Amino acid sequence: MAMNLRLSPEAAAALQAEAERTGRSQQEIVREAVGRHLRLIEEDDRANDRERARATHSVRPARVPYRRVTPRLRLPKGTTSLELLDRDDRF
To answer: Which of 14, 30, 56, 77 has the least CB density, counted as fewest CB within 10 Å?
Structure first.
């Protein structure tokens, strides 16, 4: 079935960006979204993919969830990082 679909400018831009990012057509993305919404196709839950990968031991969980990082470079006292940028680099 063919149909016209009017999207808000924000939705149209997001759809176009997703198509470019994934290399899929906009129609394919919309068909998949409609199928998911109507529960015609299964949800592809990434969390389940991670759990499956851990269960098969193809991916192991991190040994340390967080580690403290010590800075290696220090600015001279009284100098800020903004002062190191050229005028053209500033926002």
So the answer is: 77
Q: CA quadruple 42, 47, 52, 53: dihedral positive or negative?
A: positive
> Looking at the whole model, is its pTM more than 0.70?
no
User: Using one digit for the tens of pLDDT, what is the confidence trace for 13-24?
Assistant: 999 998 888 788
Closest CA to 16 of 26, 24, 28: 26
What is the CA angle 32-34-37, rounded to 5? Answer: 110
Buried b (16+ CB within 10 A) or exposed e, 27-53: eebeeeeeeeeeeeeeeeeeeeeeeee
